[in-house]
Amino acid sequence: MVNDPESYNSPLESPNFISDANDFADESEEAVDANYACKSDEELQTTLPPQRKRQRVKIPLTSTQRKAHNRIEKKYRINLNSKIASLQKLIPGLSQENVAFETNNSLNSQENNNEKFGKKLNKSIILDKVIEYLISAREDLKAKDAEIALSKSQLDRERDPV
């Protein structure tokens, strides 16, 4: 290995690379010792993770670009919130509850925020209730299918006594 800084492929190959044992505070002493154990060049080559591609330099957005991006993001959020609110309307017991987020149907977000009566549903609660409802509906469907199969088999036995 040449001692030229441009030839270093990773920070581990750099002569200035220094690790601090505090980085491994949660690890046992044996694990720390294993991390600092001397390895041959061949072992290092096989154990090093692949190099990351360089990330491109992030150029700050202009005011106009930022405003356009913010509008797009807001439209996306409102669309997603509307879909969650639509799911809420389909679940018995949740359809009349107020939501704690802005949707297309919100007349005025400040008006919704100023309501102090009752607890508003957030997205997480709504999605949890939708999941519970779907699981319950699936179990009910399985039970009904089993009931139908049993009824059919009983009906077949009554029609064709053996």
CATH class category name of the largest domain: Few Secondary Structures
- State the shape: flat
Individual helix count: 5
**Termini separation:** 89 Å
Main β sheet profile: none
Q: Any idea of the CATH topology of the largest domain?
A: MYOD Basic-Helix-Loop-Helix Domain, subunit B
What is the percentage of strand-forming residues?
A: under 5%
Beta-strand segment tally:
0
By secondary-structure content and strand pairing, the structural class works out as: mainly alpha
Radius of gyration over all CA atoms, rounded: 31 Å
Number of domains: 2
Mean pLDDT across the residues is 75
Which architecture of the largest domain would the CATH scheme give at its second level? Irregular
Low-confidence stretches: 7-27, 107-114
Order of helices and strands: HHHHH
Please render the helix and strand layout as text.
Layout: H1 29-36, H2 41-47, H3 63-90, H4 109-114, H5 123-159
Helix pairs in contact: 3-5
